[in-house]
Design a protein that fits this description.
By secondary structure, the protein is α/β, with parallel strands linked by helices. It is built from five helices and six strands, in the order E-H-E-H-E-H-E-H-E-H-E. It is globular and about 55 Å long.
């Protein structure tokens, strides 16, 4: 049997669930599973409890990751109705901005069009925006990314 060597892989969409959902998975088990599969970096979604939406929650999560992770971990900052400027100011501490346009776990579903526009306007254009979007929500996100010249990652396509 021939061996195949690959560089370490990056999983750009994981749910480590800590804090708040450790009964499903935590930082240690999620990163151990990643390593077992050849993944050397994961990028974690912000829909934990509390959600990663500001400097305080992001810094707390970075400390948890520093203590428990077995591989490299990047963190997304979550978009809310009121945090567009604050999230944009954290762009270098986060791997990207995550916007939930459709049903999700936790309080991060974006239903306010003015807030959504504010995120697309203020998020730095060189940094990615990831959206949890289906159907018309996905089409809207694609259109906004084009209008505002933003890099967009569709997390769920159906």
């Amino acid at each position: 049997m021939a061996k195949v060597r690959l560089p370490g892989l990056i999983d750009v969409h994981v749910h480590l669930r800590e804090p708040g959902g450790e009964h499903k998975e935590d930082i240690s088990t999620g990163t151990a599973a990643a390593i077992a599969g050849g993944v050397t970096m994961v990028q974690a979604m912000p829909n934990t409890y509390p959600s990663l939406i500001d400097a305080q929650t992001l810094d707390r999560q970075r400390r948890l990751v520093g203590d428990k992770a077995l591989c490299d971990v990047g963190l997304f900052i979550g978009a809310t109705k009121d945090n567009a400027k604050g999230a944009a100011a954290l762009d270098r501490k986060a791997v990207g901005l995550k916007i939930y346009l459709d049903q999700t776990y936790g309080p991060l579903q974006m239903r306010d069009l003015a807030a959504l526009l504010s995120h697309f306007q203020t998020w730095p254009p060189e940094r990615p925006i990831a959206v949890h979007a289906e159907g018309l929500s996905a089409a809207m996100a694609i259109g906004l990314a084009r209008v505002y010249g933003r890099r967009l990652h569709l997390c769920h396509v159906s």
